[in-house]
Specification:
Elements (H helix, E strand, L loop, with lengths): L1 E5 L1 H4 L2 H13 L4 E5 L5 H13 L3 H22 L3 H23 L4 H25 L5 E2 L16 H14 L5 E5 L2 E3 L5 E3 L5 H11 L4 E6 L20 E3 H9 L10 H6 L4 E5 L8 E4 L9 E14 L9 H11 L4 E6 L3 E6 L5 H8 L4 E14 L9 H8 L7 E4 L5 E7 L3 H13 L3
Parallel strand pairs: 1-2, 1-7, 2-4, 3-4, 7-9, 8-10
Antiparallel strand pairs: 5-6, 9-10, 11-13, 11-14, 12-13, 14-16, 15-16
Helix pairs in contact: 2-4, 3-4, 3-6, 4-5, 5-6, 7-8, 13-14
Bound molecules: aspartic acid and magnesium ion.
The site of aspartic acid (ASP) has 12 residues, from loops.
Length: 440
């Protein structure tokens, strides 16, 4: 069995959705198809939810009406026959009655999450009915029957696998099983989600749960590139990556994959293939446990980083200092990305500022604190690169014109991370592209 996941842009236009149907049909064997919401829908649902939380009902209704119109137009093009036009109409009006029902009630966090789930619920139904119209045999398997997260919002992979087993064996004779990305139930059995971009994660969790032959993530770019194509003129697609390399790249800013996607696939050694719906023939990127070692594969950059420096004379020859520092971050549920230490100071970075003020207050007990916002982590990835000679020289020769605030090397053998001020990012990515890949 393979898992095929299609993102919002892949299903965002009626003709694209039809193309996806062809693609699924032409893929041999049994498959589970995971769909995102149509592109723009989740953003729109977020906007509606925000208006409702703020008590701005008129604005929410305006956005609901706009979204409804979009879907009305969508079904007109998606379905050809009268009877399926009617089914489409019925489907869209049912969803929008429900959305307005949510909006009219006591609107709290729970209703908000229920609202966000509507995007994937509607896209999968639209797609399923499209297959019906084409007489392609398929079944809709609601993700809410099997996807769940625990009290820490972590997916429950083993439980998901247990629930899927009987469900899939009852669908033994069906080749195309459609389900929703992103949505799940939480430990209170309410509708919840895997955070923005979470459909990739769904695909990987399902793929791992059923020990799929392969997980295919279909997007609108031909695989992972060696650098950020939005910032660097010349980039090249990478044909092979290891799980470790792909994880680092996804976490450190490669927008093509949700950062947690690789984890479940890697756990059960299920290959992940990135493919392009706009160019099916393009080889894409295959991510597996094995790969070429010792060469630079790619660079990713993550913005919105805050660097915190704690300077303390108490650190000098003391033990237990770092533990106390880490404890403060732990108590504030804030994770640390990079860390460097000297004998009297420690610098670290976070990407979530929500608790910064109270973290700062507590850190001040240790000594002087310096905080710099708007930093960028540049992550250079390649299996076992740090075991090679001259790697850092090559990196720093490339960056000779750019001030580097922090360096982290040796945490794992497959990445070198650098912290720079965001204003140097474009220059740094281009310089590394030339220095490490010879691309300009
Ligand atoms: N529809 C959700 C989002 O836009 C999940 C996804 O597309 O992966 O974030
Ligand atoms: Mg995505």
């Amino acid at each position: 069995m393979i898992v095929l996941k299609f993102g919002g842009t892949s299903v965002g236009k009626p003709e694209r959705m039809k193309k996806i149907a062809d693609l699924v049909l032409n893929t041999p064997g049994k498959k589970i198809v995971v769909l995102s919401a149509l592109s723009g829908t989740t953003n729109s649902l977020v906007a509606i939810g925000d208006h409702l939380i703020a008590g701005q009902h008129a604005k929410a209704e305006e956005e609901i009406a706009r979204l409804e119109k979009h879907y009305q137009a969508f079904i007109k093009e998606l379905y050809t026959g009268d009877s399926f036009q009617a089914i489409g109409q019925e489907l869209v009006s049912r969803f929008f009655i429900f959305i307005r029902l949510l909006a009219a009630g006591q609107f709290d966090g729970k209703s908000y999450r229920e609202l966000l789930a509507q995007g994937e619920l509607i896209s999968t139904e639209l797609f399923y009915q499209h297959l019906q119209e084409r007489k392609i045999s398929a079944r809709l398997l609601p993700a809410l029957y099997f996807m769940s997260i625990d009290e820490n919002d972590e997916p429950e992979l083993e439980k998901i696998a247990e629930r899927l087993k009987p469900l899939l064996s009852s669908l033994n004779n069906i080749d195309i099983i459609i389900t929703q990305g992103y949505i799940c139930r939480n430990n209170r059995n309410e509708i919840d989600n895997l955070k923005r971009g979470g459909s990739d994660y769904t695909a990987s969790l399902v793929g791992a749960a059923i020990r799929a032959e392969e997980i295919q993530i279909w997007t609108d770019i031909d695989g992972m590139h060696n650098n950020d194509p939005r910032i660097v003129k010349k980039t090249i697609p990478i044909s092979e990556l290891t799980f470790d390399e792909a994880s680092e790249l996804a976490y450190f800013g490669a927008k093509i994959l949700h950062p947690s996607t690789i984890v479940p696939a890697q756990k059960y050694n299920v290959p992940v293939r990135l493919k392009n719906t706009m160019d099916e023939k393009a080889p894409g990127t295959i991510i597996t446990s094995k790969g070429k070692e010792g060469s630079f594969k790619a660079i990713a950059a993550k913005d919105g980083i805050t660097a915190i420096k704690i300077r303390s004379s108490r650190m000098l020859m003391a033990y237990g200092f770092l533990r106390r520092v880490f404890e403060i971050f732990e108590n504030h549920k804030t994770s640390i990305d990079m860390i460097t230490t000297s004998e009297v100071a420690v610098s670290l970075t976070i990407d979530n500022n929500t608790q910064l003020a109270s973290i700062e207050t507590e850190l001040k007990k240790f000594g002087t604190i310096e905080v710099d916002n708007d930093q960028t982590i540049i992550c250079i990835v390649g299996q076992k690169i740090t075991e090679q000679k001259g790697v850092l020289k090559q990196v720093f020769d490339s960056l000779s014109e750019i001030p580097v605030r922090m360096v982290s090397c040796g945490g794992s053998t497959n990445n070198v991370s650098l912290l720079i001020d965001k204003k140097h990012k474009e220059k740094a990515l281009n310089a590394l592209n030339e220095g490490l890949f010879g691309l300009r």
